[in-house]
Amino acid sequence: MSFLKRVFGGGRAEPREELDDRGIFAGLFVAEPAHVEAWSMEGLTPADWPAVEFKRLDSVKLGTLESILTDRDYDDIDQERELGLVRNAGDEGPWISDVRQELVDSLTTLTPELAASTAAKWADTDELKVTPTDVPRAEDIADLTTALMEMADLARRRGAGKRMYLLMGL
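-> structure tokens emitted (170 positions)
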């Protein structure tokens, strides 16, 4: 089983085309806050919310990514972080968290070159390693680079009045 399949439960992030007729169960999505508040949280997200399926992505992994992209210590970011939980459907989820604006802004400026170096650094963090001996392979880093570019595209498609959210569930 590949490094990314072990870490994220399905390999790399799976892009969801804007015109697709289904939403996502876990990952990142963009929507207006009022629409997120009105969503029943049952099943998949509404199909018209731009999204990237990314199983097992969590706020710690996103904090680590933000640390790499902003060149700030994770503890500095974490100390400033509010809980960020926007919606909670119970002990088994789903849960919706706000993605910090600093991370969204950093993603919008991500170039393919920066994505590749960021992917290599991110893949080598404790948060993404399943065991301390995991060594990311070139193909794993390439897949993670693609996932980062899909996250960056999603951040760029945010638009006025919309926010980026993390959707998690068991």
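The chain has one domain: 3-12+40-168.
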